Amino acid sequence: MSGMRPVFAELPPVRPGDRVAVVSPSYAAPADFPAVHERGLAVLRGLGLVPVEYPTTRRHSGPAQRAADLMAAFADDSVRAVLATIGGDDQLTVLPHLDPAVIRPKPFAGYSDNTNLLNWLWNLGVPALHGGSTMVHLGRAGGPHPDSLASLRAALFRTGDVVLRPAAVFAEEDTDWAAADPRPAPVVAHPGWSWHQPSRVVTGPVWGGNLEILHWNLAAGRWIRPAADYAGCVLLLETSEETPSAAEVYRMLRNAGERGLLGRFPAVLVGLARACRLFARPPAQERAAYRADQRAAVLRAFGEYAPDAMIVFDVDVGHTDPQWVLPYGGLVTVDGPARRVTAHW
To answer: What structural domains and CATH numbers belong to the chain?
Structure first.
């Protein structure tokens, strides 16, 4: 992989009436929870879009078959965007089957295990959308959160700058997707964002995503660019419902630091850490302690490898609800003195 940051293409806006692909590049959750999938499709139709499914959208399939559907969606000029249904845990095995030659620049929306594909597209100079998987936030019981839906709409239709703000309340517990009458997840008070060294204004392309998946990419050694290629970028980090310990978070960041990566990012956005594993409901005090320990682990790693970095904690991105969609490869401004984060669409 070359030692030069890619030149990012301009993404065309999606318009009402456009066809959009809905794919399952990781776990084919629509095969197991069709009602949730249908709720997400209904939200897309409510935005005036026409969802297009592929053979593996609702079928558990191997990496080569999932890659073939992705390539078909990107190669079809009548399909104006590609949205992942959900994440998973094996998308890394899909990447070798992808053909860069057929890629047409168009929005791809996903997060979690889709960090693999976001990063793969970043390496081609194709910006994408971190967030917006259809089954989690669009197919959400009770309907999508207004902030999540407005954020995805701005990203797809490219309606201009979006200033992010902390949610008043948030949800992190699972709802029962198999229930006949699913109830919305309970909400709790948001801790608010916290800023570390907010002394400057940084505008740069976003890179990063789910920390565990980035660590797998580092371990595979195939998809991470030379450290210098990330200079001046805004780093996005967030952890999953597998709730890695503070020690694990520190070690993963330490490995990135030893590779020379952490020192390249003048600004870092850290997502509000989900403190509930699948259907686990620890008490509020335990959840707060988990998040505090993770913040301390992040500060320790950056203190050792990038002491000048500006860091914003508990941003509503990734595995939390509501979820702000961020331009991945597109520009974000982190304004420390104003305590403001702006996504530029």
So the answer is: 19-161 (3.40.50.10740), 169-343 (3.50.30.60)
Q: How far is CA 342 from CA 160, 171, 202, 260, in A?
A: 10, 23, 11, 27
H or E element that contains 277: none
- 284 CB contacts (<8 Å, ≥6 apart)? 188
d(CA 327, CA 29): 25
Question: pLDDT by residue for the chain (345 residues), tens digit each?
Answer: 656 889 999 999 999 999 999 999 999 999 999 999 999 999 999 999 999 999 999 999 999 999 999 999 999 999 999 999 999 999 999 999 999 999 999 999 999 999 999 999 999 999 999 999 999 999 999 999 999 999 999 999 999 999 999 999 999 998 999 987 788 899 999 999 999 999 999 999 999 999 999 999 998 888 999 999 999 999 999 999 999 999 999 999 999 999 999 999 999 999 999 999 988 899 999 999 999 999 999 999 999 999 999 999 999 999 999 999 999 999 999 999 999 999 999
Tell which residue, 276, 272, 242, has the closest CA to residue 172: 276
Q: Which amino acid is at 84?
A: A
Tokens of 16: 């009402």
Q: First and final CA of the chain: distance in angstroms?
A: 28
- Per-residue tokens: 249: 């978070």
List residues bridging with 206 in a β-sheet.
Answer: 234
**How many Cα atoms sit within 13 Å of 127 on the Cβ side?**
24
Spatial distance between the Cα atoms of 23 and 42, rounded to a whole number of angstroms: 15
Alpha helix ranges (H) inside the chain: 29-32, 34-46, 63-75, 115-123, 146-157, 211-220, 246-258, 284-305
CA 132 – CA 107 distance, rounded (Å): 11
Residue keyed to tokens 């509503």: 316
